[in-house]
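User: I'm writing a short methods note and want a consistent example. For Aminotransferase class I/II-fold pyridoxal phosphate-dependent enzyme, I'll paste the sequence; you return only the structure tokens, no commentary, since I'll be parsing the reply automatically.
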Amino acid sequence: MKPSVVAIKQQEIFKFNARAKSIPGVVNMTVGEPNFATPEHIKEAAIQAINENKTHYTVPEGNHELLSAVSKYLQDKYGLNYDPETQIVATTGVTEGVFSAFNAILQSGDEVLIPSPAFTIYGPDADFNGAAPVYIDTSKTDFKVTPQALQEILRTHPRIRIFLLNYPSNPTGVSYTEDELVALAEILKKHDIFVISDEIYSELTYNFKHISFGNILPEQTILLNGLSKSHAMTGWRFGIVCGPKEIVAQINKIHELATTSITSITQFAALEAYKNGYDDPIPMREQYQARRDKLLAGLEELGFECPTPNGAFYLFAKIPDGLEQDDVKFANDLLDKEHLAILPGRFFGVGGEHHLRFSYAASMEDISACLTKLADFVK
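Assistant:
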């Protein structure tokens, strides 16, 4: 067996969630998934495609009518310019997009720079390719990479081939301003590095417009996005990879080997979303913001310190002094005693210790129950 695969451990978040689901009546604040239904017009488009027997293979990169719609959507929403014929591939979610991009770029001995705390797939994807993940602890800089930290780590790690940037961030909900992105790009453009920019939460931002790194440093950026979070389509497994045509062609080769092509029905659903679903995220985003505000106020009242998320649907809260500081023990005790499931921060890597990740992709009723149970526990 391949040693790099044997060395990969099952992700702790999955094991914790399995334990939480085994407890009757648990209030689950761990799930990074919209609790909204996929919009009706998208579901109807998929049903129509089934009824018209559009159920066969497509070309690996995706139906070209779909890719044209994706290109127009990205232009209209973010001012991005990607040729649908050569610069876009439809993938089985962003998860496959990360996997295929890493496989296309990395060689044994390379390094991948990952701001931490971070979503849990990036490091293992690097390991799988014989590359070493290098983590920047952002917990002391408001969970953002500073230009100074980036410059220093690139100076001391000349084998870095990928800078993985995820914003708005899972697990913190923190995002970047245009000025902050430009400052990072000024450093990155001096290095032979790809920026893999995971922007899956780009439509779920609060009180500001998302700026894509694909606009800031297009010649080095591989953009990942999709419909899972914006259109409540996690189970449809639709993602996109965009970037310079030379590297997208190589990523498509890995994509072909892994999947042949994504499901035809998902592609017809995605086509409808990109053509007629421009405003679908708005009502969801408004509700997320109301939920964020309720949960944030409640946590602060209990003494938890949280950066105010300006995107996604997560709160990353520091456990108050005087309480159990081992976040894994804290979360497990909370689950056992109050039947409240919240993820330990250290599951998300360096800088996550002493924190908890709350997902507010949950109902207001669950948020109220969460705060009540948490108050009982800490008091």
